[in-house]
Every structure is written in structure tokens, then in C-alpha cells.
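Worked example (supplementary).
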Amino acid sequence: MSLGEYEKHWKSVVSQSVCDYFFEAQEKAADVENVPPVISTPHHYLISIYRDKLFFVSVIQTEVPPLFVIEFLHRVADTFQDYFGECSEAAIKDNVVIVYELLEEMLDNGFPLATESNILKELIKPPTILRSVVNSITGSSNVGDTLPTGQLSNIPWRRAGVKYTNNEAYFDVVEEIDAIIDKSGSTVFAEIQGVIDACIKLSGMPDLSLSFMNPRLLDDVSFHPCIRFKRWESERVLSFIPPDGNFRLISYRVSSQNLVAIPVYVKHSISFKENSSCGRFDITIGPKQNMGKTIEGITVTVHMPKVVLNMNLTPTQGSYTFDPVTKVLTWDVGKITPQKLPSLKGLVNLQSGAPKPEENPSLNIQFKIQQLAISGLKVNRLDMYGEKYKPFKGVKYVTKAGKFQVRT
Amino acid sequence: MSSNSFAYNEQSGGGEATELGQEATSTISPSGAFGLFSSDMKKNEDLKQMLESNKDSAKLDAMKRIVGMIAKGKNASELFPAVVKNVASKNIEIKKLVYVYLVRYAEEQQDLALLSISTFQRALKDPNQLIRASALRVLSSIRVPIIVPIMMLAIKEASADLSPYVRKNAAHAIQKLYSLDPEQKEMLIEIIEKLLKDKSTLVAGSVVMAFEEVCPDRIDLIHKNYRKLCNLLVDVEEWGQVVIIHMLTRYARTQFVSPWRQGDVLEDNEKDFYDSDEEQKEKADKRKRPYAMDPDHRLLIRNTKPLLQSRNAAVVMAVAQLYWHIAPKSEAGIISKSLVRLLRSSREVQYIVLQNIATMSIQRKGMFEPYLKSFYVRSTDATMIKILKLEILTNLANEANISTLLREFQTYVKSQDKQFAAATIQTIGRCATSITEVSDTCLNGLVCLLSNRDEIVVAESVVVIKKLLQMQPMQHGEIIKHMAKLLDSITVPVARASILWLIGENCERVPKIAPDVLRKTAKSFTSEDDLVKLQILNLGAKLYLTNSKQTKLLTQYILNLGKYDQNYDIRDRTRFIRQLIVPNEKSGALSKYAKKIFLAQKPAPLLESPFKDRDHFQLGTLSHTLNTKATGYLELSNWPEVAPDPSVRNVEVIELAKEWTPAGKAKKENPDKKFYSESEEEEDSSESSSDSESESGSESGEDEEDDRSGDSAEDSGESGSEPEAGKGRAATRSRARGRGDSKDVDKEKENSKTSESSSGESSSIEESSSDSESESESESESESRKVTKEKEKKTKQERNPLTKDVSLLDLDDFNLVSTPVALPTPALSPSLIADLEGLNLSATSSVISVSTPVFVPGKTHVLLHRMSGKGLAAHYFFPRQPCIFGDKMVSVQITLNNTTDQKIENIHVGGKKLPMGMQMHVFNPIESLEPAGSITVSMGIDFCDSTQTASFQLCTKDDCFSVNIQPPVGELLLPVAMSEKDFKKEQGMLSGMNETSTTIIAAPQNFASSVILQKIVNVANVGVVPSGQDNIHRYEELKFQAL
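After joint prediction of all chains, the assembly is encoded as:
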């Protein structure tokens, strides 16, 4: 594996030169997004992922399901994120030794060993400033010397002996609207994808069950391994012994039969004049089907055509930036107040002499609605068994824009 | 300092360096001050000194820096001696870093690496399992051939370790040793075989991985573990799941017959279309021979289904490919939803999943049609994702959705991503050829694109239009003229070449334009691309042949230019054309046919998906992604014509159940089926491997019901042609309810002379006897179903020659738990019967004496499943013995198993909840049951001749579990011995009551008396009446009540 310039070998050592094939492919691709994830070289296969501006490349010698490798590399990146707070080149550079120790525990001879963050954290403690000071004085280490209990039990995701003074269980129901809206404002495609993220800080071995008012809404669900599939199949109840800390409980898709409410609309008029070096740009955003909640955190991102040199705009609200190199226009709108709809108007400067752009750019919109799950999903109750104390429970709903695109 | 370092080098670890090391660490703080030393040489010297130091912190720091060097790909091998000395360090972090170093460089420094071996050997005996495991991990990672025997020994020992974690590491070590020394294969296979038997979910994934790497062809090792693996699958860690599922997919393709039937294929019309004759024939064969899915095949399909919900994309994909390759086509549909879900994840996952969907969508459009819109392209998608989505959209296009799709494509064509726009144009071309209704619309749309400002778009359109026109050689003069005009502006070589070719092909349709085009291109010949030059030559040749008057000189000019071209292909072509078209004395016979050669009808190109032939690779594999065979790819074999022996998967532990599988299966068809359906469902969902035997029996009954009813219909046809042979007579006195149930299946009812039945549930004397003369019986039908099902089992059955003459045949020795008790008492003489005629019912009992059961079916029923019983499992069955606890009681034997690893203490029957009148004699409390132990106890229950459930609690020291027993009707009966006369008399006395009878048609070969007998005694505890006629069989039984 090589991280830009870092490498770790399992099995016998593969020469670094194999990476040249990858760099070659990287050069050939127009942008990083288009570097093929699977590259074949004369003796090896390179499978890579691109995340947080880093490439994680693994060298494969024999047949293996590519998703197996891709999923594992993502887990590695997740683990780095978890340990160092960010998955960046600097973080990896600063923590090379921990990275090595982690990789050593995560993979043995090409087969993943421990990928659960709970187990890893027992084996290798995440770096903190305090601990590194203590360690340098006492000479003690970050590495645990006993086998994590989870590794052997049939609930590997939870460690034994968890203790909290305040026992809390929080659930965030986050729904994202993926949509494509066409020129005329009608919906080409829309669906709701949701996740329930949990933050569980409960002592002992709590056994939770979470039920919904309307579980039938959930069309397709993927579960954290802790969830008992059979309970869900028979009763539509999520029953589980949770991991400790933050984790994603389920992700789901709302059945496509339901019509998706689109909370915002965009009025747009973008035009480029023939044989002239300027164009007009005018967009207005308004609320629509927002269930009486405020829409906030609105951002509009537009990838302008290459011929655009600069933009001269006036927003009625928020601020905008235009990067003349990447040609990306970002308008940070903020909240919508129905009395005065936010708009962004102005002139577009084009490269003189170049033909006018064929197509108007698509608008990518981000927004957020607090206290609302747009699908109408509602948690009914959360029960805890197996422990005596009374936990503090909370559920939060948020709706966001996912891949929300308006064609103009 | 430098002189010192030289000395150190020579001594390689002398004592004096230790002092120096201490000095060095005391003077220089270990935090990166070493950056001052610029040369690597000196730097390493410091590291060496630090490693020699007494302080762990210094050593640790040195090791950290060394690891940093390794990570950057710098060579740190010269530090080997200094590092390896620390292998026995007490500090676990230092130790681990030394391990990292050792594994990296041992191959290069073999001799020195040997120094560390003894440390690992010691660690392998450590009481801490983590240390044992990591010692094995590192030892096996040291790629030094000389230690192979040591590794072998270590692996052998570790594979028998008590800790599953260590065993898991042993499984990993197997692969490492194998890659180091393939000679060890045989020994390693032995260890794999042993580890495959391991019941720990921790080990399962790793050992299957080792199996796949070392001996993927030894499929025989899997047989015995197949069911266990299927059942463990849900609990194995996700990475193991992927490996096991892939392996089981291959296994299933070698062991089961194809579940893809004629009816299923109708769905994928595409496939039908391209099927070879051979395949068609194969299908026809299949239709004749009704398909019954092997229960093990079903087990795999069912147990993998929940994993579609996994958060791990690799697991979902693995299940999807399993369903694709081995599930019936009608069931594979469920995977599409999960695959579409994966499209939300990262770019790389999308890429792989889309590729697989593309392959699937070619063959089975219907699967993904409902998700059409999920494949719509966003402007923010990466180009490769866009193109894959486009590919899928094209595959899904049909008459119904094409107009929506074309509208969508219009947006794509205008995309700023020109590569994508070009791909869209190709797509439109493909849609135009595949869906004839829209081909004109598409063509018009493409023509409009010719006036697009972007050259790439125009060029691509030209190329596609060329292909379309070639496919429809109609009059498209206008389009050709338009394209000829384009030649002035367009510069993309492919497009220019396409236009020239098109004009050349159609030169007779555009007689005025073609020569002019040639004139223009002749002018620009020298500056054209090679591709275009070749087409100019072609155009010239074609015009020379059709219109030599106008173009002779021009063509010759071009040929002259071509003769001196820099590219030898063009020179070659020029020479060839000149010889062919310009007549001279040397030109051979060919030139006469020049026109035919050049202006021949050319077959239209087929616009095909690049994913067309990918399905011969197993989906989800690297080979599928690359579309070439990757190293180590294991072919997915074709379905076998005939399934290999399914009994190889039986596991010895449940020998008893195995022996009686036929009985269990036969029973399914019979009246009691209904009563047990609930408990069977429980069994189905269970994960227990111990009762998989009985499970498979019950399953087959449920799943294949449909198939076999078809089968029996076929049999009826046969027997219809030979009605004589199908004659038989069977008389049964049995409970009406039971009869009725079996007849539900048969749907044929017919009254006959002497049978009666009273309303179902009541506990009065319900004796019905149905006498269907000269007709086949229901039993025989179900028999016929069974026979087709498993030949092998049938032969076993036939080895028990149960004829009417041996009605007393003692079959009890088949049954390990029951022992024969009573011997038959001779029936009373007919003369006596007359005297007794006036007696009441109780007197009748003296006439009819109880006999031993003819047959004891081994079918056991689940009383308490091990999952619900916290490890305590209980099964019960009816031994068909007179109950020792009371006359009216039915004896029930209960087998208790302890599947936990602890003793279960004080097992007893707790509270009873019995319906009115029911009584139960419980077994004596069992003090304790050892782990994996099993004990059989007997109970007596008086069911009051009803099929009501006896509920009671089975208690252990800590828990109580509610269980219940519901008897099948047949078990409430008691066989008696009587003569044929007595039987007829009894039968006569019962006439006038309700009766039901039916006609059953059976194949003659199923009509052997032994077969029918076997069938009947399976269902009910009855005896056989000796009969004077060969083709008449009578069965009788009396219930307890009657006694």
C-alpha cells in the first residue's frame, strides 16, 4: 500500500516502481475523480480509492473481489479519521508509527483482522497530547497487551466494562433529498435517503429496542452488524446491543412510491449573448413545501463553463465567491425569509472571441431543515433491557439536501 | 564520533557501543534533533546507538524512526542486527515495531533473522493468547525457507489451540507458509481440513480463505462442513462472509442442478433470443424432468438473504452475485434493490457496482427497470460513472421508456463533459438500432447535432449516423449531401473518414457531389490524417469504377500521391488499388471483379454493449471488472446435468436422523403435515446445524410441493394407460380428519360403501374406513412423488420388504431407543366371534388384541430449539410402544441436548397446561447434563384421542421454557392383530357412519405392496391384516379408547 509516498508491505515485498503505473494513470485522467479504481499492470493489479485529497493504493497479486479491497481501504481511512481527527497527509505524516501499528492490526497477509474501531482502540490507544507526554516520561506505550474482549465474544463491536456516570442515548435521524429538477422546475427524479446515527454512552451491556411509528416507510435498509435481523423481519423493531460511542445504526431508503416533497424552488435565468463577451446571471430561491419549518444553511454551487472569465454579481443576502481558476461560483445564502426572497444577479464576463457555451450550468443546492424528517418517519419509543439504570434518551431530526441538482 | 562508528561496524554489536549509546541518548534529546546529521550513514549510526541503549524510551524512539524510514520506502536493512536484538524486549510497543521491521527485512537478511526464531518459539507457549497469536503471525510472516519445518510445527500446534483467536491466526499462517513453500501443500491441507471443522465464527472466514488459496479444487473437504458454514454465515465477521459466500457459490455450481427453468427464462427475452440449440434442448429436457431444489441449495439461498442488508458493500455484492449465479431467476430480483442502494456510497464502490449492474441488465432487463431513474446522470458524477450509468440506461431502454430516455439524453448531449456527450451520441445510435420505432427520431436528432458548435459532438454524430445509414440502406440522400457539406468545416479525422466512406458507398446516389468531394480532398490529400487518406483512396477507387469519365484523372493523381506517402500502409493500399482497378497487361483475373469487390454489400456493424460477454466471469470478481482473467481466478463451473450425491453433506453426528430421512420426508406428504407446519417454520429459521437433517427433510416438502404435484400428474398419465396394473385395494380405518387432510391435496372425493367419520375434533370413537376398490389410494400417490424424489433413498426403503405376510415384522432394531415389548396374541377364531357378537364395545377389545407396531418412523420433532432454549435443545418422537405409564397414554420420547459449554442442571418438567381431560406422566428430573451431552427420557401423555396440544414447561435450574407437543393423528392409534374376517366384520359394523373415500392414481412401479405399506405405516401406527388376495391390503388400528 502506498499513501502518496508511504508504503506498507504484507506478504513479500513489492517494488515501489509498481506505483509508476498508478501515477501514469493519474496523469492520463483529466482529474482525480477519473482515475480508474482498478488498474491492471503486467504482474499486479492496483486498486485505489481517493479520499480527502489522498489516494490509497493497494497492490493485488491475485483475484479478489474489488469491492473487498475498496471497502477495506475505506475502513482504513475511516480509522485514520477516527484516530487523528482528520485523514490528511499531515496527520499521517505525524503519526506514521501509529499508522503502521494500526495497519499491522487491521490486515494480516491480505486478510482483514480487526476493523472494528472499538477493538482497535483497545489494541492501540489513540494519540492525545496528555498521553504522549506521559508516555515519554514513563516509557509506557500506546499498545495494549491483552486481547480485546470484543475480539472473542459474539458481539465484537462492544467492549466489556463500559462505565458512565451519565447514561445517555442519542439518535440523529438524518434524511437527505436526492433530486434532479429540470429547466422548467419539474422533478425528474427525487428520492429520500436517510441514516440514523447514534451516540450511545451507556454503562454495562444495555439491550436496546427502537421502534417507529411508521416503519413501513423504510423500503430498503442496511444495518450495523449489531442489529438483530430477525426481529426486524418479524416485528419491524430495531433490537440491538449498541457499540460504545458514535456509530451509524442504519441507513435506509424511503420507498419510491411516496412522492417526495421538494422544500425549495429556484427561479433562474442565465443567458450568454452571441458574439458578445458578457452574459446575464439571475437566480432567486424560494421556499416550497417546507412543512412550516425554516430552511437554513442554503448554499448554491455552480460550475460555470470554461469560457467564463469573471462574474460581477450582487446578492440580496449572504455572500458569494467566484474562483476564476476552477470556475466555481459559491453563494452562501443562509436562511430564507419568505418576505424577501434571496437572489443573486449580475453580469458574466466571457472570454472574448470564444463561442458561447452550449449549455447553462447546473445549480447544486445545499440546505438544511431542523426538526423535520421529510419522509415523515418518526421514532415511536426506545426501550432498554438488561441494565437497571434509567438512561437519558433523545432523538433529533434533520433534513438536508443530498445530491440536489437544478438543471438550467 | 565517526571513527567510533567504523569500529562499531567492524565489531557489529560489541560491548563498547553500549556505553556510547547511553552517552548519545543522554546528550541528545530524542525528539528529532537527529535531523542535524545529514548523511544517512551517520544517522543510522545514531539509531544503532539508541537501540543499544538501556532505556526503553530511546529504543522506542529509534524504532519509531526506523519504521518511519520503512514507510517512506528508504532502505533500513543495515540496521538489522541492532534491531533484531530487541525482539525479546519487555516493552510491547518496541516488540511490535521490531516485528514490523523483521517482517519487512527478514527475507533479505535470512541468517540474521534466524536469531529471532527462538524468541517466537518461546512466545508461542505464552499463556496470553494475544502473544501466542502475534508470535505465530510474525513467525509465519518471516519469509525464510529454512524455518519451514518450525512454522509447520507451530501452525499444527496453533490449529489445536484452545483460543479461537490463535486458531484464526493459524489459518492465516497456512496461506503464508504455502506461498513460501508450496511443497508443504499436503500437510497444510490436513490442517485446513481440521480447521474447517471448527465451529467458531472467528475461524470460519480465515480458514475458507486458506482453502481458497491452497486447495480450491478440493471441494470434497467442504461437503461435511457445508451446512455448518451456511448456518454460521450470519455470525461470521463481514470479511469472512465475503470469502465464504464466493466459495459457496462455486460449490453450489458443482453440487446442485440448475434451478433455472423454462418458465423463468421467459423473463429474459434477450437470453432466449441468443440461446443456442443445444441449450434449448437442454431446457426441453429439464421440462420433462421436473426440478426439485436440493434442500441444501435452498439453505444457502435463504441464509444469505439477510446479508443483503449488510453495511459492507463487499458483502452485499457477494450475496448479489450468489443470487445471480445460483438462485432461481424469479428470486434473483431482490438483489437489485440492495445494489441500487450501494450507488449512494463512494465513487469507487459505485464504479464496481455499476459495472456489475451493466452486465446483469443486459441479460435480465426486468430486474432493474423499476430503478431506471436511479441511473440518471448528475453533472457532478465522475466521467467514468456517467458512462457506466449511460451504459445501463441503454440496456434498460425499451419501447415504453425510450421517449423519456431520449429526453434525458438530450440534456446529456449538451453536457460540458465532452467525452460524456460523445458517449451519449453513441448511446442514441444504439437505441436507434435496437428500438426500430424510434430510429427515425434518433436519426433526425443526430442530424440536428451535426450543426452543433462543438466539433467532438459533430464528429461523434457523423460516425454514428454513418453506422445507422449503413444499417438502413434506404434513400437518405439529403443527409449524405448535408454531410458532404460538413466536410469543409469538420477537422476530426474519424468524422472526415466516415463521411468519405459514406459518400463512396453511396456514390451512385449522389452522382454530382461525389466527384466534387473527391476533387476537394485530392487537393488536401497531403495534409490529411492517415485514416482520412485511406478513405480518400477508397472513394477514388469507387468513383473510378462507377464514374471513370469524370474521375479517372483525379483518381490517378491521388494514387500517385499515395504511392510516395510516408506511411507504408497507404503506399500498400495504393499499390493494391492500382493493380485492381487500372487495367493493364499484368493485372490478373481479379480486376474483372473490382466493382464487385469494392461496392459489395457490406454487413452493417453491430452496435453492442461492451458488457455483452462479461457474464462468463463470476460477477463481483476482479476478472469481471477487468474483463480479462486475473491471476488466480477460479472458474465458475456450469451446472451439472445430474446432481452429485447429496448425502455427502450429511454429518455423522446425527446418524440416527440420517438413517430415517426417507421416513421423515415421506411423512411430510401426509395428514400430519398441517399440524407441524408451525414447528417446521421454526426449524427453518433456526441456525442449528445439528438438526439440519430433519430440517432438510421438512423443507423439501414445502418448497417442492408445486413441482411434485406436477410430477404426480405426469404419473397419472402413465398409469392411465395401464389401468389394470394400477389396481389395488386398500382399506383403512383411520380418523376422518386425517383422511380429509390428505384428500385436500387430491381434490377428488367419492363415497364408497363402508366408511364413516365423525366431526373432526371430538374425542369419541372416530373410525372411518375408506375402501376404494380398484382405485389407487392416496398413499400410493404420495408414494409416487417420493420415489421420483430420491432414488437412492428409495432403494434403501425397498430393502425393507414389508409384505402383508410379515405383518409382525419387527422393525424396532432400526430404532435405537425403542425396544419391542409385546408379541402378538393370536386372533380369536371366527367361531368365537359369533358368540361375542352381542357384546358391547368393551368386549370388542378382547377380540382385537394389540400388536407391535409394524414400523417406527424416525422422524423427530423439535420441542425446544437450542436458540430459544439458551443452549438446551429438545426433540421428541413417537416410539409407538404401548405406554408403560398408563393404557390410554401415548408414549413420547424426548431427547435433550446440551449445546452450551456449561453444565445444565436440574432439567425437569414445570407447570403443565393441559386441556380438559388430558393427562401427562412426566419424566424424572435430570440432575445435570454435561456440555455436548445428550440424554433420552420418556413420557406418557393421554391426548384424549384429540389432536389438542399438550403444553408444559421444560425447566432448568435457571430458566423455564414453554414447550408443547401436538400429536399427529396417526400416532394416537394402536395397531391390533386380527384376521381378515374379523376386519370385514368390524368394518361392517361401522357402516352407516360418515365416510370419505378417494381415488388415487399411482404409477405401477409404485404400487408394490411393500411401498404402500411403508407409506401408510409412516403416517399412522397401524397393523396389517393378512389377506387372501394379493392385490388387496388392509390396515387396521384401534385407538386407545376402543380398548
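Two points are worth noting when inspecting this output. The mean pLDDT of chain A is 84. Chain A has eight helices and 23 strands.
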